[in-house]
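Design request, tokens follow.
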């Protein structure tokens, strides 16, 4: 079965439920850019998709960076003078600044406050903070709780380790008919946060699972990596193979109720950019197109000038544009099965375009061929679909001069890709086109 047929049979309610279920299972784990939380996440994905798990030692130089020490945490709290855990890692892993160094100390409020982070504008939410490349420690809490802290002596405890270890990432490869590759990457380094990043993790897992059962023209490579350092490490270790990547998408922010948004690759007019824009334009739903900028997710590394890969980011509401971003409010209520499923469907629709985008040459280029005598022209007038099909055939014939792909034709004709694709298939069957 190919992607087009699979897409038609898809039960979107079921897909949404399954994706949401995986998000819920991964939600409690305390992940970071390295460590056992990341490994456990990959193990759970591996139960669905036979990932290859890679371990890169701390200290490995990767371009201008170095693979960091591995961070693991067992427990952490702040106790008041009565011995009550008033900030408790076991209640929310967001309470501890990711990569906090271990500490066991007693201190007055004034000293503790230098290590506390809150969001005064959203007093009930816990912020998500990291300190990957600066060895320090800290706690995050709601501003409401912060205001209630009394001037007393606190006991601070972080049972964590920051030691030589590994950076872990997962990779899955599906071999298609040819060696050209489509890259799909997601970051999986955030702790209990759903839209950023578990929606992407769930989408990539289910895409990998579905595509592995289909017949594909391209080969597909799926990456589950820690943000920034993961893509830098992967690019450094795989530099020799990177030229095989012909199209790519970074998957994150895919479960909120906002419209879809597409951030173009650095190239700006790559086939992936055109394919996503064509899909969104004919989706019947609102959407937003964003130009490339060197700020965002791992597309920053894939699109750095030394690689300049055609990799965009297909998401919903962009990061920083919803208040729940990087807070405890990006939780299981913030993502919805319906929107996860919609995002999944859109990814499949993009791959359907890539899989079927080809160039043809019109075999009867001197004036229009007579479609009627070949049974390609409607016999009874007035049917809306028939009219559209004919229009699509005329566009395909006219622009199949060797320089336009079916996607170029769909764009120029302002018609849905599948209409153009089906028109080309009919013309090909009657010998009016030849594939280039
Ligand atoms: Zn993030």
């Amino acid at each position: 079965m190919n992607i087009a047929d699979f897409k038609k049979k898809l039960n979107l309610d079921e897909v949404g439920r399954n994706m949401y279920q995986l998000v819920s299972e991964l939600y409690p784990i305390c992940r970071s850019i390295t460590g056992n939380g990341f490994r456990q996440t990959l193990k759970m994905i591996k139960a669905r998709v036979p990932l290859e798990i890679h371990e890169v030692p701390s200290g490995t130089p990767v371009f201008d960076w170095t693979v960091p020490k591995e961070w693991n945490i067992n427990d952490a709290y702040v106790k008041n003078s009565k011995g009550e855990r008033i900030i408790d890692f076991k209640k929310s892993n967001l309470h501890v600044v990711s990569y906090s160094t271990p500490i066991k100390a007693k201190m007055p409020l004034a000293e503790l406050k230098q290590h506390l982070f809150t969001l005064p504008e959203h007093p009930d939410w816990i912020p998500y903070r990291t300190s990957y490349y600066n060895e320090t420690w800290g706690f995050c809490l709601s501003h409401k709780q912060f205001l209630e802290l009394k001037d007393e002596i606190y006991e601070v405890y972080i049972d964590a380790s920051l030691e030589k270890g590994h950076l872990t990432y997962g990779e899955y490869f599906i071999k298609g008919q040819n060696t050209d590759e489509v890259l799909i990457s997601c970051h999986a380094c955030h702790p209990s946060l759903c839209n950023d990043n578990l929606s992407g993790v769930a989408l990539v897992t289910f895409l990998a699972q579905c595509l592995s059962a289909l017949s594909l023209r391209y080969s597909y490579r799926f990456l589950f990596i820690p943000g920034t350092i993961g893509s830098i490490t992967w690019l450094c270790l795989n530099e020799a193979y990177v030229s095989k990547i012909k199209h790519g998408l970074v998957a994150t922010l895919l479960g909120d109720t906002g419209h879809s948004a597409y951030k173009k690759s650095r190239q700006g007019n790559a086939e992936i950019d055109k394919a996503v824009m064509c899909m969104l334009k004919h989706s019947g739903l609102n959407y937003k197109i964003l130009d490339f900028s060197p700020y965002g997710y791992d597309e920053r590394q894939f699109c750095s000038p030394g690689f300049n890969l055609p990799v965009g980011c297909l998401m919903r509401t962009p990061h920083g544009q919803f208040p729940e971003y990087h807070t405890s409010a990006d939780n299981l209520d913030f993502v919805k099965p319906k929107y996860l499923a919609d995002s999944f469907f859109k990814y499949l629709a993009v791959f359907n375009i890539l899989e079927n985008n080809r160039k043809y040459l019109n075999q009867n280029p001197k004036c229009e061929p007579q479609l009627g005598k070949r049974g390609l022209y409607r016999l009874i007038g007035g049917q809306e679909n028939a009219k559209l099909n004919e229009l699509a055939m005329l566009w395909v014939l006219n622009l199949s001069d060797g320089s336009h792909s079916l996607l170029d034709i769909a764009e120029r004709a302002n018609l849905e890709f599948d209409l153009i694709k089906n028109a080309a298939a009919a013309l090909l069957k009657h010998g009016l086109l030849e594939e280039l």
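Comment from the thread starter after seeing the answer: thanks! The two ends are 24 Å apart (CA to CA).
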